[in-house]
Amino acid sequence: QVQLVESGGGLVQPGGSLRLSCTATGSISILSAMEWYRQAPGKQREWVATRTNVQGTNYADAVKGRFTISRDNAKNTVYLQMNSLKPEDTAVYYCKYQLYWGRGTQVTVSS
Fold it and tell me: What pLDDT, on the 0 to 100 scale, is given for residue 32?
């Protein structure tokens, strides 16, 4: 059994930054990818970024150059550093590991 807990969301002005964290408990393999997704109001959940220890990182075009995913294997934690935030980044952000999902953390970008 794996549990994922996200934190770090909040309200930020356009152009600002936030860092999300997702800590996993349970049986975690460093060989498996950890990912971030997001779901904006009225829209489907969409993939944001992936971090693996073999293939590195991948990003959705909408966040490339602004977001950075990183991972601390010793802490079973994945981070999402979000810079130059835009109102369209407003969403609930979810962490995913294999078939497990966290409950999400709300990010609101507004002036």
Answer: 87
